[in-house]
Amino acid sequence: xxxTIHTTPLPHTDPEESLAFYRDVxxxxxxxxxxxxxxxxxxxxxxxxxxxxxxxAPPTVDPGLTEDERRMIHEMMAKGTYGWILLASHDVDxxxxxxxxxxxxxxxxxxxxxxGIRDCAFRDPAGNLVRxxxxx
Length: 136
Known about the structure:
By secondary structure, the protein is α/β, with parallel strands linked by helices. It is 25% helix and 38% strand.
């Protein structure tokens, strides 16, 4: 089969803050930006990987969600337990220094994990966990 990962969604609570994080802190390019106010869908991704995207989207716009589900999503986002993404870099320590210097909330400094990888972690403005591992 010929299958690739095209887009993965992450929720945002403030599109401007999320856009600033993924564009200005991580250095991703903006591919699309539609909607207005908090009802914006923004697609970003690495400039050298045009077929790989992150869709920053409002988390609770699905009309099939109940009010309890919407409340639960917002509570989980506030705790940082709702959305997450795993990225990779050939220089995880260098990336960590740059992202930290740009003011991102550090969750974990670069660490050699007992399961054989080196990684670090940040939170984006919506509380999503952004892990960055050392690429092979």
